[in-house]
């Protein structure tokens, strides 16, 4: 709201919003973006300082640099909106939702993308509204939130009929979204269909500075084995360990046989996160997830597709020379190339490793390939006691709504849990506790609207924004060429004023 009201500018001669200059619009959007992202990704400074070896000033500088880059997208959305306000008054603010949504979608894809905390994710726990994700995805949710704010801004700036219309539109949006979402949750049919499967989620709570200590490898393996036995004793028919849960490479280290022996003992499939090394055709290291069948053999291997910038690879390392301590400590991973189906029970599951679960299109591709169950494994020990583990869990929960699937999450230090197809966390752990969650879920095969149309809402937002900008430019150009034959006055019809 403050950004939108600022972009409207002071009232013009006719009492309508006059807009602001392009430079000011860009600055306003940049300031809003900095506030947005410093407030949500501040924890990255602690991560690169504690685990990347950067000094505190350099760690803070790296965080601010990332926030400044991300803030460029709200700045561009503000710039486009200000142009429309100058031509159409406060009504130009109504294109802001499209401009914002378009900028978010581009942020999630450009240079590998960083779709962390899009505006729509603010509704992850507002479940009636969050059901819209099953129709238009998280970007559609972003457009919804921005639309309500834009209409409120128009109502505050304009009076008379336009204010009334804006108020009615807000009421219709809220009642329709909230009412339909409440009805969808109350109907609740998805959670009662499909084949049942009891899943065991193992949260080992291994401190980050101990995970790769060879002296602690046996204790770590014993911890996971004991928790897994307890989960199977409680009825788990499928056990999931977190990302990089083995303190060794499963296929390279002789101790990997101990994991396979455990699976044979348990008699149930195990999804385990571990690193994978492939020497040919060229040496490559993967962050991977192995599905071991009840007889201990490997049924499938998924290699992480979306890698974490500055965590698993260094983007633009030639220009980011000041993070050299981080580069020296980092063993870069290679990306995988496709989702992999994991045969589990009477269906197929898919998995996402760590933060790639925040990419909606990646999870959708897995479901279109046949996944009946969404799993995600992660090691959030990096984040400490910050807001990041909570953000990560809620971002993941939206994938369940979008795809109409159960989502199960095993995290080394939490949050582990089970999310139903309506986004309800039916069970979840705390952070930094050692536990095993056992919960029955359903293998689902239905389709949501979002599965069918994908990110059509984002593409529509891009098209609408471009059309509005091109339209105002064309009207301005036509207006500049229109001359009154009687008075010789040039009429700028598109801008609504005259120049001699």
Write up this protein.
The chain is an alpha/beta fold and 500 residues long. It folds into two domains: 2-187 and 455-499, no CATH class; 193-445, Carbon-nitrogen hydrolase (Nitrilase/N-carbamoyl-D-aminoacid amidohydrolase, 4-Layer Sandwich), CATH 3.60.110. It is 45% helix and 16% strand. It contains 15 helices and 14 strands. It has helices at 2-8, 22-41, 43-50, 56-88, 96-107, 127-130, 133-157, 160-187, 217-233, 256-266, 324-329, 360-368, 388-403, 449-453, 456-481, and strands at 195-203, 238-240, 270-278, 284-292, 298-303, 342-344, 347-353, 373-378, 407-411, 417-419, 425-428, 435-443, 490-492, 497-499. The chain has a six-stranded mixed sheet with strand order 5-4-3-2-1-12. Strand 10 (417-419) and strand 11 form a beta hairpin. Helix 1 crosses helix 4, helix 5 (96-107) packs across helix 7 and helix 7 (133-157) packs antiparallel against helix 8. The longest helix is centred in the N-terminal third of the chain and has 33 residues, at 56-88.
Q: Work out the number of β strands.
A: 14
| CA-CA gap between termini | 37 Å
The major sheet is characterized as: 6 strands, mixed
Corresponding CATH superfamily of the largest domain: Carbon-nitrogen hydrolase
CATH architecture of the largest domain: 4-Layer Sandwich
Number of domains: 2
Number of helices: 15
